[in-house]
Amino acid sequence: MSESKSNASAVVSYSAHATVASIAMHSAPVNALSKALRVGLIDSINKALADEDVKVIVLSSELPLFSAGADISEFSGGDLSPMLPEVLDVIEQSTKPVIAVVNGNAFGGGLELALACHYRISHAANKVGLPEVHLGILPGAGGTQRLPRLADAKTALDMIVSGAPTKVTKLPKVFDVIVDTPQELEQAAKAFADNIVNENLPAKRVCDIDLSFDDKTKALFSEYAKGVALKTKGYFAPGHCVKAVESAYTLDFKSGLQREAELFMECMKTPQARAQQHFFFAERAASHVSGISNDLKARDVNKVAVIGAGTMGGGIAMNFANVGIPVVILELKQEALDKGLALIRRNYENSAKKGKLSSDQVEQRMALLTGTTSYDDLSDVDLVIEAVFEKMSVKKEVFGALDKVCKSGAILASNTSTLDLDEIASSVSRPQDVIGLHFFSPANVMKLLEIVRGKQTADDVIKTAMKLAKTIRKVGVLVGVCFGFVGNRMIEPYGREANRLMLEGASPEQVDRVIGQFGLPMGPFTMGDMAGLDIGFFVRESRRDFISHDPSYCIVADKLVAQGRNGLKAGKGAYLYEAGSRKPIPDPEVLEIAKQEAARLGIVQREISDQEILERCIYPLINEGADILKEGIAAKSSDIDVIYVYGYGFPVFRGGPMKYADEIGLDVIRDRLNHYKNELGEYGQHWFEPSSLLEELANEGKSFSSLT
Ligand code: NAD
Fold first, then answer.
1. Is 331 in the pocket of ligand 1 (CB under 6 A)?
2. 2-264 CATH pick, 3.80.30.20, 3.10.450.50, 3.90.180.10, 3.90.226.10
3. How far is CA 589 from CA 502, 561, 565, 592, 595, in A?
4. Segment 650-674 mean pLDDT
5. pLDDT at 4 over 60
6. 530 touches ligand 1 (CB under 6 Å)
7. pLDDT (tens digit per residue) in 444-460
């Protein structure tokens, strides 16, 4: 037996009883459509066709799901023949009817496999989907041609353009039978197969269905394409998905498949596809921490305490209540506690008003949250997350108190954004149990969790934190201790440049427009106003020694704060805001302040190009990322990308800042940093020195991703 044949039989089994042939996929964990599985499918179909007794073929899965689609390990290439479209053609052309028993999720190629069969049956709780668009591509095994033939244009477009899972009950034309429960499926499949044999029903080929491109359908596609262009700016694949589905209406089936293949290849060649696929792997890689044994056991976390019920504490507590973990919230004063708990309730009730929670669920979650003003109530918790004021003395006091009451083995975490975790850990007798859990605001919404490893943090504490991130549906990324950790440390030069550009003559709206067009959800000035300009001011106050040599450093922001222009909450910051509105309105007064400060500092204002704005905001951020990698604060460049996408809304179609740099070329980034270093006088000399790691990689023609 050849190797591919023996591999195939290990993942696909074949049996025939009387008139029914059964092909069952069992390639754990997700029936990825690997080469072995593809070979197994073709072999099994051929066996069934060769057996004269067989009249019908049942394709099913022995795993809890049908198939999650393509085998991602094949993305790197190799001998992949037979490819999936070829396999699906063999199935579709089978002269004996093939029934797909879609017992669980069928995604991507998994759903395309079911669509190539002649009949499909499933159960009501099941979901299927074509998520390829998230990888910057489109379904490339006939999905764009077969789905509209079975469903309708709008359903096919919605599923393929959004990539979202869809309940099979929403697809009555795709599934011939939808039983109520998974338990009924086997019996229903048997009855269905018997009926096909008894009634001598034909192999109903989807490819034989003719679609008409009438005026109504034409109008639908033209409207849909316009909407997609607006809603998915920056992404390449969604527009191509529309074109591929449209070709199911304008071309015959075979030509439609060819068109789908062409469009697929066009997507594959785009930087967006490279970026989105990079990000797909980056997210998965973030959860793998090298150097920590797989066998190491995580600690149990069944009860949590949160210290401080302010902006962050409340949101952090909600994350645990949302997944059924009880939380004790500690505040110094009853009043602050009541206020914090009332705010949590209001947040839940708002979700209930939007239909996201039932009122019972609101009560269940609130019942998991208890308040206290006494540390004695924390003696049985497994994890404490401190979210009090950002002041070292306060943090140390809290950790000292925790050290006295918490049980042995309890994890003591801080949500500090900027303070030295190792110094905090020095205030307890068990520094190995101390870790940073840096949530992003709003903590109940933002998916990122920077997990900060201190000098002495124990491996099983890190393992527990990484696991916990998943439990509370966050994306955990391990980072080391430094000012601002990864995310906020890199955002610092970005904010600094945005402010300096204003002094040099750019307006906040120009800078924000350029960054918006690049793909971030908002520019630095809108972001600053939303966060509160006073917050940035306090951070600058805490590190004047680092910036005092530069009199221009965020000077306009300092002036705005001095005038009480603290941002959105004050109705004015870098912009003006009408009462109750979050819409930034440009304010000539701000430009005037910038003009005066520029004159005072001897900076000649000029017109600044959009390209300069983009380079000066983004390249120093990347440069800082290079230093972070050099210092080992982040283990891999893809971790930084994950932090930026989930914590700062960096566009996925650019893959994150480090992937973006790799795409542009590190030599280009280095050269442009040097250009500004020379162009901007003393300011440039100080802030635009390329990182030695960037320099080294650029000289060797390498990328950041080559480091891992
Ligand atoms: P906040 O001022 O809204 O809340 C702090 C709360 O802690 C207040 O309710 C206060 O009463 C309480 N508190 C103060 N001292 C206490 C003590 N000794 N014991 C018990 N409770 C005490 O502050 P916040 O914005 O929630 O920030 C909390 C922490 O989270 C800070 O370390 C901050 O750097 C960090 N953080 C904030 C953000 C953000 O965007 N706000 C984001 C990430 C991290």
1. yes
2. 3.90.226.10
3. 13, 14, 11, 5, 10
4. 98
5. no
6. no
7. 999 999 999 999 999 99
Identify the CATH homologous superfamily for domain 304-479. Answer: NAD(P)-binding Rossmann-like Domain (3.40.50.720)
pLDDT surpasses 70 at 375: yes
Using left for φ > 0, alpha for ψ between -120 and 50, and beta otherwise, residue 585 falls in: beta
Ligand 1 within 6 A of CB of 488:
no
415: Cβ below 6 Å to ligand 1?
A: yes
Of 319, 333, 388, which is best to mutate to test ligand 1, by the most ligand atoms within 8 angstroms of its C-beta? 388
Residue with the smallest CA separation from ligand 1 atom 39 is 441
Q: What's the whole-number mean pLDDT along residues 392-398?
A: 96
- In 3-state terms, what secondary structure has residue 102? strand
Known catalytic residues are 112, 132
388 ligand 1 Cβ < 6 A: yes
Query: Atom 4 of ligand 1 has which residue's CA nearest to it?
Result: 310
* Pairing state between β 327-330 and 127-129: unpaired
43-65 residue pLDDT tens: 999 999 999 999 999 999 999 99
Atom of ligand 1 nearest to the CA of 314: 26
The percentage of the chain sitting over the pLDDT mark of 90, rounded to a whole number, equals 94
In percent, how much of the chain has pLDDT > 70? 99
